[in-house]
Amino acid sequence: MSMQAEPAGAPVPPEAEQTRQDTAALSVGARQERRLGWLLCAPAVVVMLAVTAYPIGYAVYLSLQRYDLRFPGQAKFVGLSNYGAVLTSPFWWDAFWVTLFITAVSVAIELVLGMCLALVMHRTIFTRGVVRTSVLIPYGIVTVVAAFSWQYAWTPDLGYLAGLLPAGDAPLTEQWPALWLIVLAEVWKTTPFMALLLLAGLALVPEETLRAAMVDGATPWQRFTRIMLPLMKPAILVALLFRTLDAFRIFDNIYILTAGAQGTGSVSILGYDNLFTSLNLGIGSAISVLIFICVGIIAFAFVKLFGAAAPGAEVKR
Amino acid sequence: MGRPRRTRWLRAFAVLPLLTSVLAACGSDEGSGRPTLNWYNFPDDSGALQKAADRCSQASGGRYRISYNKLPRAADGQRQQLVRRLAAEDDSLDILGLDVTWAAEFAEARWIREWTGTAKRRAVEGTLRVPLQTATWKGKLYAVPYNTNTQLLWYRKDLVPTPPRTWAEMLDMAGALARQGKPHFVEIQGAQYEGLTVWFNTLINSAGGSILNASATEPSLGAPASRAAGIMRELAKSPAADPSLSNQMEDQNRLAMESGAAAFELNYPFVYPSMKANNAKLFKNFRWAPYPRVDANLPARPTIGGIDLAVSAYSRHPDLAFEAALCLRNRENQLTAALEGGLPPTLRGLYDEPAFMKAYPFSREVLASLQAASVRPLTPAYQNISIAVSHTLSPPSGIKPVSSIETIRDQIDDALRSEGVIP
């Protein structure tokens, strides 16, 4: 979504188009252009600060307090002890490993399937529109609605998928079957998104390079691994980064499918339960901040690991 | 680019006053001058609650109208909706149907009003003592008991000529039936949920102990707790255990008994009309007895359930709300709820009412059970405590009587200091 927002928000006034070529030195015009850019950005920055920085700051503040709606008289500053409580709790670590499992497995499957779909969409000549549209349908369905239909489908006596299993099997009531079904629901839902990002990457691979390789006798697999993948690296990185960050914060599918029972809760479910069932804003905020830190680490690791191929890396120079 | 964006912004601003006026309309009184009192309670399908609301609106002589709003079906969902709205100081809630374990939490958070003066006197008058205890926090009354509930021992007379008086006797009988190849399961709530906490609470109280100390400042537990946990483990390890014990809730217990697989069942009175409707053959031998004791010399103290009615601190008509709540749980409306909705009443007098005794052949046992009953820990941190208990003691076959109780103690300590993380 933010992908689409970017071009619209990019502060490139029409008159700047002519000066784009001479970027060797910052001329007066360029400096003015940059100033204008900042000015045009300013409202967005202010709004972003109001809707993201403030809540994040408030969550950090709450996470340092004993702030429990049930004991309003005993609110006080407690330093990092909420973090200590969360990090020494087995529930946090259980949820953390479950989240990591769901993230790693679902993103890996999505990458492979997404690549296949992207290749199909890229190569299809006839009925290209129909293929692209039908591939995108799962992504267009609201997650909660899709999750409900999965839940009904796997409910014994009720669902058409549960009917395929031996009688009495209730896969959503057991930890591992339930985890795999959550992964399945995630993969079904977000593979199209992955495919779409990869399709954009495929469009970057020049047709003549592929033809040249073909003339030189490269097999289809060699062409895929030696030419397409390296050229697509930035697109793959963006796709992986987006999906990993999304998958790590998984909430709606789990909330509907199992509500976190039988050891299927993610860290987001843990945070929700501690905020809304336990009404403990201190502990709940500490969990939220920890999730935020995890997400930050994932993003940082991606950029470090993939180095120059990171999105935006080329733009710097 | 700039043009459409500006108009979009303008449109967004234009919507704002509209939005605020809608919100204001939600909060303001309707023109008629007769205030509407919003009663939020569990969803009742029998029509008994709606009937009570209509009767009381009528009886108020035009001073108020009660609107019955149904909360979600699951208790957690009910609590979440109430809590979310009360935390936001929503003034469109007047009378709240609280589960018996919530009064302390809502009172401590200052979301509900204390009952004083005449209203308090009328709330206490003729009301059973133990249900009143659930509505009391730090010596003050915060709600009025609406209905109550308690478990009895249900058994099959064709298999069990005289009902067991203690858990030890019951497990022996089940063992003997198993050896004879007859139905022998003891049906009880062993799934990881509130029902498991109820089971543990009943056993620990029956053993002469409690989960929290009297002032609810720290865990009590101790030897009675180990004894209670030991019984749970013993049942789970014995032939008396249903193979699906660790997944069973009240309804699965009912179904197992109706299918003829079990000899004993510990459950609420709703199983009686259900057995009558579903299995006429077994119904002939379907009997009830007091809940079995842990210690032959101490009375069994089954945990009570039920609903208490409280008045929201943000209600704009608190005086009318107190009055309406009292009306909703008066003798006539409680009788209707008992006969049509299957909810045992909290007024002592109704247990002598012929119509009630006819519909509840076991009314005497229910009353005796209620008078000896125990309540779940009264503390604002109850949710955490319940989760600590049900998670640690699940599955019952994995209980380690000493170390499981230590785990529960640590988690309760954390919860009371607001440091408990719940799964």
Characterization of this structure:
The complex is a heterodimer of chains A (317) and B (423). Chain A has a domain at 90-269: MetI-like (MetI-like fold). Helices cover 70% and strands 1% of the residues of chain A. Chain A has helices at 2-9, 16-19, 28-63, 81-87, 90-123, 128-140, 143-153, 175-202, 207-215, 220-248, 252-257, 267-277, 281-306, and strands spanning 65-66, 76-77. In chain A, strands 1-2 form a two-stranded antiparallel sheet. In chain A, helix 6 (128-140) crosses helix 8. The two termini of chain A are 26 Å apart. In chain A, 28% of the residues are buried. With 423 residues, chain B is an alpha/beta fold. Chain B has two domains: 34-148 and 305-371, 3-Layer(aba) Sandwich (D-Maltodextrin-Binding Protein, domain 2), CATH 3.40.190.10; 152-303 and 381-416, D-Maltodextrin-Binding Protein, domain 2. The termini of chain B are far apart. The chains are: A mainly alpha (317), B alpha/beta (423). The A-B interface holds A 8, 66-74, 81-82, 85-86, 89, 91-92, 94-95, 173, 260-261, 265, 270, 273-274, 276-280, 282-283, 287 and B 1, 76, 79-80, 83-84, 87, 105, 108-110, 192, 247, 380-381, 383-384, 414, 417-423.
